[in-house]
Structure formats: C-alpha cells, structure tokens
Amino acid sequence: MESHQKHQWTKDDVTTAVRRNEFVPFFQPKIDLATGISSCVEMLARWDHPELGILPPSQFIKLIESAGLIDQFTDNLFRQSLASAANSGMTGKDIGIAINFSSLTLQDPQAPRRICSLLNEYGFPFDQITIEVTESATPENLSSVIKSLTTLRSQGFKISIDDFGTGYSSLKLLSKMPFTELKIDRMFVAGISENKKLTGILESIVHLAEKLNLNTVAEGIETKAQLDFIRKLGCNVGQGFYLGSPARDFEVVNVTEDARFAMA
C-alpha cells in the first residue's frame, strides 16, 4: 500500500487506463437506520490496475480531472453501474444508486441531457438516482452547476452534498442548490468518542438538516459505538465498513451481520 501512495501516475497512465476500461465500480450499501435495510448503494470508483490490483480514487481522480477525462470516466462508470443493476434484476425495483459527479462535469449545460439519456437507455427510474456533489470541489462557475442540478432535480433525481462540513461555503451551497440529502463527513463520526466539539458540530448539522427537511447520511461508521451514537442522534442513513464493505458485484451488496444484530 505504501508503494502505491508514493507512485507518481502520469496523464498518459490514466489515459491508457480509461481506454482499456480499467476503472470499475464497486458498490457500498447506504443503510436506513430505522429499518436496517439498504435501499441505495453508492458507486465507488476503483482502478483495477493490471499489476498493482485495486487502487482507491485518491490515486487517480485529480489526475483524471486535470487530463480532461472526467466526463468519459464518469459516463463509463455510470454505464457499468447501470448494467450491473440490470443484470442483477434490480432495474425498476426499490434500490437506488448514488454516484459522485465532478462539478467539472456538472458545469456543462449538456450534462443533464447525457445523464437522462443514459438512464433511459437502461430503463432505470430517475428518482432512484442520487447525484452526489462534493462541496469542496465547487468550481468558480457555480451558476452553471446550479442550473444543471436544478434541471436534474426537476426530473426527479435526488441531490446530495457530499463530505459536508469540510469546505468553506457549506451554508452558501445549502441556500443555493436543490439538495435533498446531506452527507456528514467521516471526520465528525470518527471523532465522536474523544472530541466534544466535533460531537456538538455533528449534532448541529443533524438539527440543521431536520430544519431544512434534508435526509442525513453519516459516513465512515466503523464501530458499534459510532452506529449507536448516530442512530440516537437521529441520522436517517448510515454508511461505513461496520455496516457493509464495498463489493464489486452489485448482487452481493448487503448489510453485515454485526450491523443486523446491532439494529435488531
């Protein structure tokens, strides 16, 4: 793992990987904390490197953006995800897919049309797709992103603000964008046991979301104590290794036995 972190990939490396379809989707369940059921999975990008194996997005996302490949990369992963859902028999059933879209993609006025066209091709309902946008990645051309998200929301898509609390313009984004969901960054969840300030911030975020009628998702749940705290706090949905690990096969995405017992 350490050698992976030190490897300096080039634009040629990722361009070749995109051409060879080496980037693949993994799926992690988002668990309804009231029922213990997964009604949505998040698509997580991975690089299936022919020599080094599975690599995380921290190894390649920024380079793909700077190489101008993000649209092709995202469309390809989205298509793979929809095909996996269709092959598993999930199309049309009550299971959603959440996918991260770069703001570089969303600032293109044609992005909503491309996204809708792809879903129509696979017969997947618009209202079962959640578009996740990382607040720290908001571009200077904010108005174009807002227009795209507003169009998608009007078509029935859910819109999520990812890693909430890690950027500088959280409240501004909440007031301008048509979000339906707020994802609480894992740093707040990880710090609940030893940092009272983080706990207070987490409580404030959940209460803010309730006031704005937004669904809340807590990321990075890795222990039973964290799950218990998040449930007591009133978060709607949880995600993390304690609840379910990312899986390559859409059909095997499920809730862990520990989580089932904890939420019974």
TrEMBL record:
Which residue stretches, if any, does this entry annotate as coiled coil? none
> Which Gene3D superfamilies does this UniProt record tie to the protein?
EAL domain (3.20.20.450)
> PROSITE patterns attached here?
EAL
Q: Which CDD domains match?
A: EAL
Q: Where is the EAL domain?
A: 7-260
SUPFAM superfamilies listed in its UniProt record: EAL domain-like
Q: Which Pfam families match?
A: EAL
Please state what the protein is called: EAL domain-containing protein
The species this protein belongs to is: Undibacterium arcticum
